[in-house]
Amino acid sequence: MHSRTRPAGLLGTLLLLGALLLAAGTPPAAAKAPPGPVAGPGTNHATDDPFTSDRTSWWRQDRFGMFIHFGAYSNLEGEYTRPDGTVCRNAEWIKRECRIPDDAYEKQAATFNPADFDAQAIVKAAKDAGQRYIVITSKHHDGYAMWPTKQNSWNLRDHSSFDPHRDILAELKKASDAAGIKLGFYYSIWDWHDPDFADPATFPRYKKRMYGQLKELVQNYDPALLWFDGEWDADNPTNAWSRRDGADLQAYLHDLNPDLIVNNRVGKREVADGDFGTPEQEIPAEPVDGQLWESCMTLNDHWGFAKYDTHWKSPATVVRNLLDVVSRGGNYLLNVGPDKRGRIPRPSVDRLRETGRWLGSHGQGDAVHGAGHTGLVADPAWGAVSRRGNDLYASVTSWPEAGRPLHLTAKSPFTITSAQVAGSSQKVRVTPAGDGFDLTPSGAATGPLASVIRLAIRPPAAAPAGTGKGLTAQSWANDSFTGPPAVTGVDATVNKSYRFDGSPDPKIPADHFSTRWTGSIEPRFDETYTLSTVSDDTVRVWLDGKPVIDSSTPHGPKVDKGTVTLKAGHRHSLRIDYTEVTGEAHMKLLWSSPSQSQQIVPQRQLYAR
Question: d(Cα 204, Cα 283) in Å, to the nearest integer?
Fold first, then answer.
């Protein structure tokens, strides 16, 4: 167990002063973890639109990834025998849930020897499954680092029986790069082991080491993604992580590598945190508003290895989950838990292989990789429908009896020009019926997991892309739009994330300001659109002089929506009133329609007043 004494003299006095200021809610600059460039009024942290940016393109196309939970807890393989002989069961939470004393946990970790960890075999298992990225736990809640960190000795090199010359993260990075697989790291903010974590007086010291570890991970292994966890309020030990801590960390990471993708648990899982949301062990019933998302799930009932857990998901369940996730615009991150020797359990490998075999057969992977949500049709009870360009992929998990149709409800007019069962020469009769189409296959399903009907479509006509330059933006140094604006200009998009430290202009304070955007918005489709705002603190939106969104009670980061019927190529007048009172400042304007996937309304479709 690490032991540290508080330094005496001037340094001790400064730390005590920092602790008092932290308790008062005004952290001194010296107490904060190493920042990136100093930010101030005028700083907008929304550097791009994750829905459309090149930075996130690979992640949005890949759709399917492997999660790996592996750490010192894996050495216990899910069971801890207490001194009285009773047995407690858990996996990655076993230290806390079984109340293992620190010395006992450290003693068992010293025997941890994952000598059979085979990075190439793990990458092959992912590739065989059709998974195109991997996220492995670099540090879980027990604080144990799975790489040779220089920040402490509580790590796989310095506190284990593992070969000190090996680095499993470096091995996995090399194998992933060779296979064309992206690599990301999970990192827990909550730390049960670090003695400085739970005490507000010493928490800054923990943050300094945390920043140091993250810098090591980014600079030494060049991950494509960082997947945070452990951000919630908790005790045993107390977790003081705040929204401001999350904002500071996100800015720091962006400074280290502007191309990093970060999940929303870097903050407090709010819609304005990170690049994507993280529903856990569940699949949202419909596309998530305001943020990219990824559903993470286990293959059995635990994240880490538990030798007694044989409750495995079937390949059919895995495939159906994957299809549901993709059809609603999400990613699917499916977990494996290697045993104490570093081997992925055979039942996990078998299920992954079956999933990959399905994806690789008959071009069925086109329903997943590079595909996503389509608003053109309703989610059917018999399966899922995704879109890739001008093809719809109707993945049927409940194949109809001979001669019985599959009904497809259309949300906007479009034409089906051909229909073909992937991997079969059978014909599919397409008949307009009621609110959509009936699809009647002439033969049997192509397999037990799911059969895919590829529908080539002629989508609704689109008006040419606009030529707009953005909206007129007027900002006031007050939150009441009082007096003349302090600054007037043109904003290319409404995509602002000033967090705690910025405003529209250096002349405007970070709190108590307001912005009004005016001009017009030009859609490309004759359809019903959903306009969405992500805001903190208030927002009101008018379209053609009529209120669409009125969220005028101060609030934290949240999504508000309104539906409007728009005419393609027509410039509809638009006005947005936004106020920032205190705390964070966020304002984003998104749109979606049956033919338009969710995104920040782009510059070319906005015209200044």
Answer: 37
The pairing of strands 182-188 and 225-229 is parallel
- For tokens 């009133």, name the residue: 577
Q: Classify 471-608 by CATH class.
A: alpha beta
Burial label for 235, CB within 10 Å (0-12, 13-18, 19+), is exposed
Contacts of 160 (CB under 8 A, 6+ apart): 72, 109, 110, 111, 112, 113
Note the pLDDT of residue 41.
85
No. of H helices and E strands in the chain?
A: 10, 29
Are 600 and 51 within 8 A, CB to CB? Answer: yes
Using alpha carbons only, give the angle 511, 51, 335 rounded to the nearest 5 degrees: 105
Sequence ranges of the domains in the chain: 50-78+110-360, 383-458, 471-608
Please state, in angstroms and rounded to a whole number, the distance separating the CA atoms of residues 609 and 601: 16
The per-residue b/e assignment along 445-465, b for 16 or more CB within 10 angstroms, e otherwise, is bbbebbbbbbbebebbeeeee
Token pair 């829905």 is found at 51
DSSP 8-state secondary structure symbol assigned to residue 460: P
**Are 505 and 486 a contacting pair, CB within 8 Å?**
yes
Q: Which sign does the torsion angle of CA 193, 275, 277, 120 carry?
A: negative
Within 47-125, strands assigned E span 64-68, 79-81, 87-89
Q: What is the pLDDT of residue 40?
A: 65
3-state DSSP of 343-408:
CCCHHHHHHHHHHHHHHHCCCHHHHCCCCECCCCECCCCCEEEEEECCEEEEEECCCCCCCCCEEE
Residues (pLDDT < 70) of the chain are: 1-40
Contacts of 425 (CB under 8 A, 6+ apart): none
What pLDDT is stored for residue 439 in this prediction?
Answer: 98
Q: What is the pLDDT of residue 255?
A: 96
Backbone angles phi, psi at 416, to 5 degrees: -95, 120
Three-state DSSP at 306 gives coil
Is residue 580 within a helix (H) or strand (E), and if so which, with residue range?
strand 572-580
50-78+110-360 architecture in CATH?
Answer: Alpha-Beta Barrel (3.20)
CATH topology of domain 383-458: Immunoglobulin-like (2.60.40)
CA–centroid distance for 243 within its chain: 17
State the first-to-last Cα distance of the chain, in angstroms, to the nearest integer: 64
- Complete DSSP assignment for 476-500: ESSSS--SS-SEEEEESSSEEEEET
pLDDT of residue 35: 45
CA distance 507 to 476: 9
Coil/strand/helix, residue 164: coil
Assess whether the region 383-458 and the region 471-608 belong to the same CATH fold: no
Give Cβ neighbours of residue 54 (< 8 Å, ≥ 6 apart).
none
Residues 585 and 503 sit within 8 Å (Cβ to Cβ)? yes
